[in-house]
Amino acid sequence: MSDSRRRYEELVREIAEHDHAYYVLARPTLSDAAYDRLLRELLEIERRHPDWVRPDSPSQRVGAPLPEGSRFPRVPHAVPMISIESLFSFEEVAEFHRRIRRALAGRADDWCYVCEPKWDGVSASLTYRDGLFELGLSRGDGAVGEDITANLRAVGGLPLRLRGEAPALLEVRGEVMLPRPAFERLNEELAAAGEAPFANPRNAAAGTLKRLDPAVVRSRGLRLIAWELVRCEGGPEFATHHEAMAAVAEWGFPVSPWLEVVRTPEEMRAFHDRLEERRDQLDFEMDGVVIKVDRRDLRELLGSRARTPRWACAYKFAPREEITRLLDIEIQVGRTGRLTPRAVLEPVRLGGTTVRHATLHNASYIAERDIRIGDRVVVRRAGDVIPQVLRPLADQRRGDERVFTWPVSCPECGAEAVARGEHRYCVNLDCPAQMRRRVLHLASRKALRIEGLGEKAVAAFAEAGLLRSLEDVFRLDFARVAALEGWGEKSAAELRREIEAARRPELARFLYALGIPEVGEEASAALARSFGSLAALRRACDAAAPVAAHRAGPGEAGAAADAVVE
User: What is the count of structural domains for the chain?
Assistant: First the structure.
């Protein structure tokens, strides 16, 4: 080996060690200037000898940008990335413990839990083969994620090569986050450039990972914290989660500094309360504590529900509340015609997010609390839940507040608004607002998953007369789409590919996509299991003629079905 080649190999290892010290150990070993000198030396050697470039070289953290208009490929998860159950009170946590105890009675005598932070960022799955980072996926819908490998390479703390002796195959999951100081700096830069700032660090991390240029990802300072070992083949076996995470740290991943083994609900609460007290002092957002059964064999024994594992839960922090002014109450029209009041608020910071709107549920909710336009109101936001107006501050009224009057007609199409229970509905099935919401539901991630058919696109297509019903999605005139402002032939062709791919959905997704009232995700899956095919389901519906009277079918849902299968 030549001296130059030997120096190159030394630089790759040395820079990797400095990265580990900076991102994982939080103990920088070099000044920024000294680090930059090493990196420039490495890049110069690679410029002279491009055939020497290693896949774990620091230069490989920033790859070439994807062409404009590109989409990240969708890849199935080897192990589904399901969510965990959220609990909001100590009583719920105690009941979680009792459920585990009942399930393990007579099966296990010695078991405990692990408590760790529930980070509020973007989850990612990282796969390594023979020690090298090979594949990085977003959560997606839990079954299929997007291949964001190139962008994840640019995330601080993610090892391109595992330290020490590596297993043949390793899958680790973690949270990609933007530290608060980096978030504030990014928003200052965006504001200076005349661009809209991000509402919170989580949105900033999610938006950054969707960028097509890894250099942008690198420049924004995203960081990784690993929180689960999913697969380890051709390597050591681990009896417990805390042993597995110790190994994950040895392989070079940043892991949570807060991980505690507990046995009782009281110990869970103590950990939760200690962390909640510190949440605003940390650089990273967290919104609760994750509680997991520690022994991996018991996790297998306990299994999972349709959407959540039985062996884990998230004990959420108390929701934050703020006071702001209710500027107006506007009416939104849903895909079933339901009219929903929405509060228009004076913007207020709430739990790291700028809140401008909040739910008011229904007319009864407003009347019972005597909420008036112009009131000072208490607004609450808990995790991903839509912010809600809790109550007015009646003692702070000025005298110019207005009582909300429910409209007698649909604000979109003017049709009669009829009362059904606590809600009011637009009776016009051809209401443009209902149609737009049905199309968005059809294209959503849990339905047909049509990338590029979001709110702006649907509104533009409807305004141009391209979308008047669900079936029009599958009969779009793409020449007219390409001519719309902000589109062009390339974007139109990409949307066309997405829609063509959506013609071959799983039956459960297809049924859910139709948006039939009372037929949600679980009911759609049950129907798909029972009938097996759309033809068999149609025969059953034809045999049960009264079903045809259902509001969403056969009508537009049936027409959409015909359009898909054409």
Answer: 4
Across 409-426, average pLDDT: 91
211-222: string of b/e by CB count within 10 Å (b at 16+)? bbbbeebbebbb
Does residue 167 sit in the same domain as residue 281? yes
Q: Is 464 found in the same domain as 391?
A: no
- Residue that is written with structure tokens 């789409």 in the block: 481
Beta bridge partners of 177: 223
Per-residue confidence band for 436, with pLDDT thresholds at 50, 70 and 90: very high
Decide: pTM greater than 0.70: no
Peptide bond into 554 cis (omega under 30): yes
For the residues of 250-284, what is the DSSP string, one character each?
HTT--B-S--EEE-SHHHHHHHHHHHHHHGGGSSS
What residues act catalytically?
118
d(CA 292, CA 109): 17
Name the CA dihedral angle for 328, 333, 338, 340, rounded to a multiple of 10 degrees. Answer: -20
Q: What is the CATH number of the domain that holds 440?
A: 1.10.150.20
**Spatial distance between the Cα atoms of 477 and 142, rounded to a whole number of angstroms:** 33
Task: Indicate the length of the chain as a whole number.
Answer: 566
